Amino acid sequence: MQRLEQHYPTTPVPLDHSDAFTLLIAVLLSAQCTDKKVNEVSPALFAAGPTPQAMAALPEATILGHIRQLGLAKTKARNVKRLAELLLERHNGEVPASFQALEALPGVGHKTASVVMAQAFGVPAFPVDTHIHRLAQRWGLSSGVSVTRTETDLKRLFPKHAWNKLHLQIIFYGREFCTARGCDGTICPLCRELYPKRRKPVAWIKA
């Protein structure tokens, strides 16, 4: 935590957004896609549908036209429209501050819900993306048998008040120093110190 704090004392959310709704949509769109690409297409989409009411009123084809460059665009367009409709039907046009309610929306899994809960509502959460899953295993913080296990292990290791910032710090570090192809666990500074081949994982971690 100290090393990551030195590298990244501030942790801006990498997906451009203006409120909980646009953050939710941006995170949904980022599945199997880079944040950079989402940020390229989201301004036009959010200009056309800045609120659940406006987004629900858009034809699915219009939404698709804005996000066609993204992976799984057709499915995402369908989910974005239906999600906006359900926010109106179930939640008075507001993004719910509940894991259960968020995960009941189309296209919203646990990771997406965790990001929204953490960054929009300040609720402690530890969303695990591919960077975090990879680095937690390399650094001996988790067995890496599943994303769910990685999240559980990290939550047990680190204080709750640090989760929301720490998960972004790990992501930033993974992108800058420890990419999947740029580091094999022996190159970046933290991997050289923590790589499990040289240091056994924490004793309580079981597969």
Verbal overview:
By secondary structure, the protein is mainly α. The chain has two domains: 20-121, Hypothetical protein, domain 2 (Endonuclease III, domain 1), CATH 1.10.340; 126-194, Helix-hairpin-Helix base-excision DNA repair enzymes (C-terminal) (Endonuclease Iii, domain 2). Helices cover 58% and strands 0% of the residues. The protein is built from twelve helices and no strands. It has helices at residues 2-7, 20-29, 35-48, 52-57, 60-67, 73-91, 99-103, 110-121, 130-138, 147-157, 163-176, 189-194. Helix 2 (20-29) packs antiparallel against helix 8 and helix 9 packs across helix 10. The longest helix has 19 residues, at 73-91.
Quickly list its features.
single chain; about 210 residues; mainly alpha; Endonuclease III, domain 1; Endonuclease Iii, domain 2; 2 domains; 12 helices; about 0% strand; globular; disordered C terminus
Give a quick account of the main beta sheet: strands, pairing sense, barrel closure: none
**Rg, Å, rounded:** 18 Å
CATH class of the largest domain: Mainly Alpha
Which architecture of the largest domain per CATH? Orthogonal Bundle
The number of distinct helices, counting runs of at least 4 residues, comes to 12
* Uncertain runs: 201-207
| Structural domain count | 2
Fold-level CATH name of the largest domain: Endonuclease III, domain 1
Give the CATH H-level superfamily of the largest domain: Hypothetical protein, domain 2
Query: What is the straight-line distance between the termini?
Result: 24 Å
Structural class: mainly alpha
Instruction: List how many beta strands DSSP finds.
Output: 0
Whole-number mean pLDDT = 92
Helix share, percent: 55-70%
Overall 3D form? globular
Series of H and E elements? HHHHHHHHHHHH
* Residue share in β-strands: under 5%
